[in-house]
Amino acid sequence: MARLDIQNIRKSYPGVTALDDISLAIKSGEFFTLLGPSGCGKTTLLRTVAGFNSHDSGEILVDGGRIDNVPAHRRNIGMVYQDYAVFPHMSVEDNVGFGLVTRKTPKAEIAERVARALALVQLGGLEARLPYELSGGQQQRVALARAMVINPRILLMDEPLSNLDAKLRVGLRDEIRDLQRSLGITTLYVTHDQEEALVISDRICIMERGRVHQVGSPHDVYARPATLFVASFVGAMNVFRDIAVGPGGEVRLGSAAVALAGLAGRSRVTLSIRPEDVTIGGSPAGEGPALRLEATLRKVTYAGRDALYRVEGSGFAPLLVHLYRPDTARLAEVDTRLTVTLPVRCLHAFDATDERRIDLRP
Amino acid sequence: MKNARVDVWTLVLAVSVGVIGVLLVWPLTSIFAASVIDNRTGDLTLDNYVRVLTRPFFQTAMLNSLIVGVGGMLGALLLGIPLAVLTTRYVIAGRQFLSTLAVLALVSPPFIGAYAWIMMLGRNGFIRLGLESIGIEVPSIYGFFGIILVFSLKFYPFVFLLTASSLGTINPSIEEAAEGLGARPWRRLFQITLPLVFPAISAAALLTFVLSIADFGTPSIVGGNVRVLATTAYNLFNSEMGGNPGLASATSVVLIAMSLVVVALQRYAVRRRNVAGALIRRPVPRRLGRLASVVAHVVCYSIVLVSSLPSLVVIYMSFRKTSGPVFQPGLSLDSYAKIIREVPHVIGNSATYSFIAVALIVIVGTGIGYLLARRETVLTGALDGAFVIPFVMPGVVLGLAYVVTFNVPPLELTGTATIIVLMLFIRRLPYTVRSSVSILKQIKGSLEEAAISLGAGPAQAFLKITLPLMLPGIVAGGLMSFITAINELSSSLILYVGRTMTMPVRIYLSVLDGEFGTAAALATILLFASGLAVYLIFRVSGRNESAFV
Ligand SMILES: Nc1ncnc2c1ncn2[C@@H]1O[C@H](COP(=O)(O)OP(=O)(O)OP(=O)(O)O)[C@@H](O)[C@H]1O
Ligand SMILES: [Mg+2]
């Protein structure tokens, strides 16, 4: 268990800046996730912490001590890979015991700790198997046990679930979470799956093109996205770009208008709202001001527990409305006219040029 | 902070650069220097080149080299491509048997083939006499006919193996699509299939050309009065010790240049052809109609059996009764008794030198291969480039370069066993480096990183994880190196002294002296050693014929 500080890390490859001045403070015992689209630099950052990439400048500290000048094998950092990286020529037992053998741990202790680690990842009884005799999920459990058995100061995981099928992914995701909680290992986790990040993390760092957009709890990131990029990358978002703002903060969507004090003094703004915050029909009682838009239903996507309406109207971009537990009998027909309500307290506003969040309720 | 760290691999890199520098770059520089220096005055001069390029004596040699190079290449393509197409696309009984024989033909030294063909088609060759008795005249084996015949039958397995393995990776849907669009078999072959395997065919063509112009033993045994560059360089150098090092060196440089031009041409020809596609199904051989099938079998078996003929003749001759240099009717172990009596040290030398060279090749080649595959830097890039040199440097040239470089201090090695071992080492090293690079590309880098993150140092991670996974490939590569090392003739011929004579050198000298019995017995031992290595390669690599190219 240890604190991890990443300070001003930069790394460029010819033609790309993979990491552009990244600074993160990860607390002891925290489950911290790097989330971002493909190519944003997640793996590069993770491998820099592990010691497999050289970086151009910046420092990495564990519990206040610099580690970026320590060779990878002396950093005591466990790593779990997307492709498992289970040693194909060694049994499950030897794989898990590998790190202990390199540490010259006594034989009896190795046996005991390996057995405990295998029990923890529910692989008891498979000690003698070779990797090719295991399923993908089992191989990843071996990798997990192998990384944890050495009691690493930090555990790094690079998309450990992305090679597994959907069901297994959810199961192992919860197991990893529980295991990490009970052992309290500081964990730096990489994924590009936003749902996975929200479910598993204590805090999430959202990256794009080598830069940090926001660091915060899953709730922070979802409910108060710091940039338009975060807003659209995490969860679904209806976006109305580049809307004119009146002198007192008035904005207009279609035929509806509302004054937003937080926008006073600006000339243009980008507004957004999540599909699940939009309602169909009149205003719910006592919910404050709202924008009511006249629109036409263009498409209905039914998915059992949920349904999505796609509606269009004049003077605003088409938008999605999320219906939870829809009543099939009452789903509207395509081309019906309806009113959609956008409660003002659910609106997000972003600067039209730098796309940073504007607080509407200071 | 840039955290470039010093670890074991930095050391390996330093050693490799040293090895390449001393054993490759330095000799190459020396021979180049010798070519631009006047023998008597020691002045800088282009005289040697002017002479090589203008005198009819050299022009003829150059032209002859070109003729045997192109001839050997065309012959090999003509035999190798049909064999590859027929055995991969159609049902041919005994495919494994055919490819095993082809591999065996590949690993027997070319000069043995040359000498066996003399016994078959030479002035008193039994086939010639047989054919003449029924009234068929065969052209003289001495000259272009013999050289090109030997090269074609010797080098076609390269074409066969490379093309067949490439044919095996073509998505069958492509050929089926062509058929569905109405292309008849011949059209499909020439417009779809062969263009798709063009990179493999051109690589094989390049290889056979380079090997043909580099070969020394064949033209000097069956060449008659056809002089090529390789034999010319050797004779110039050998006419008396230090006969004419300047001219010999200039000839060598021209020979290297010829190979380089062909390498460049081939790279240019395949520059925009990357046809590797996703392979969902493997091609399935089809059945031919009865008549076509008979023809296909006759073609395949003739090619392979004729190319195995020299080895069979040599083995048979080694057991013939002899009296002096003359064969007598009946079988005996005379020839073997004679070599054990007269030249036992030659067999010992060959075995010892080859083993030591192979051990060095395996250790150094694996290390360098690892550097090239896993640590990309400017220096490793240069190292990779340097490995083209031995590929285009004929044995004769390397031998000459070694004599020029190592007959004076600081490293005076001529006449020692060391120089022969080093020469064997450097000649085969690039192949091992290449093969370890390709083996490593199939082993995921994350495995080794995982070991390092678990606390293993770089050396330990390599030894415990990567090396065991590379082992089958390394062993196969090592055995292949052993085959080439033990069969090496041309550079040994230049570097040997009585004490350090090897089997190929002895065989060559015996053939020149007309001691065919001794030559046959030694050649049989060589064939046997090579065959054993082939068997072991099949064992470790699970019958993967591509281990041989
Ligand atoms: N060895 C390298 N040489 C050159 N560029 C590289 C190298 N490694 C990574 N990059 C580049 O750096 C950027 C970040 O790559 P990185 O692998 O960290 O992305 P990632 O966020 O892990 O993406 P993914 O989700 O696809 O795994 C990319 O633009 C990538 O092309
Ligand atoms: Mg990645």
Describe this structure as you would to a colleague:
The complex is a heterodimer of chains A (362) and B (549). With 362 residues, chain A is α+β, with helices and mostly antiparallel strands. Chain A is built from 8 helices and 21 strands. Chain A has helices at residues 42-50, 92-102, 107-120, 136-148, 166-183, 194-200, 218-223, 228-233; strands spanning 4-13, 16-26, 31-35, 57-62, 65-66, 77-80, 154-158, 186-191, 203-208, 211-216, 238-244, 250-253, 256-259, 268-273, 279-280, 290-303, 306-313, 316-324, 337-343, 348-351, 357-358. In chain A, the strands form 5 sheets. Chain A has a 6-stranded mixed beta sheet with strand order 6-7-8-3-9-10, sandwiched between helices. In chain A, helix 2 (92-102) runs parallel beside helix 4 (136-148). The longest helix of chain A is centred in the middle third of the chain and has 18 residues, at 166-183. Chain A starts with a strand and ends with a strand. The model of chain A has no long low-confidence stretch (mean pLDDT 90). Chain B is mostly helical. In chain B, 74% of the residues lie in helices and 2% in strands. Chain B contains 25 helices and 2 strands. Chain B has helices at 8-35, 47-54, 56-89, 95-107, 110-121, 126-133, 144-167, 172-180, 185-196, 198-214, 217-222, 229-238, 245-269, 290-318, 334-342, 344-374, 378-386, 388-392, 395-406, 417-441, 445-453, 458-487, 490-495, 503-513, 516-541; strands at residues 320-323, 326-331. In chain B, a hairpin with a 2-residue loop joins strand 1 and strand 2. In chain B, helix 1 (8-35) crosses helix 17 and helix 20 (417-441) packs across helix 22 (458-487). Chain B is globular. Classes of the chains: A alpha+beta (362), B mainly alpha (549). Chain A binds chain B through residues 50-52, 54-57, 68-69, 71-79, 81, 83, 85, 87-89, 98-99, 102-103, 143, 146-147, 150, 156, and chain B through 1-5, 7, 444, 446-447, 449-458, 460-461, 464-465, 468-469. Adenosine-5'-triphosphate is lined by residues 13, 16, 18, 36, 38-44, 192 of chain A.
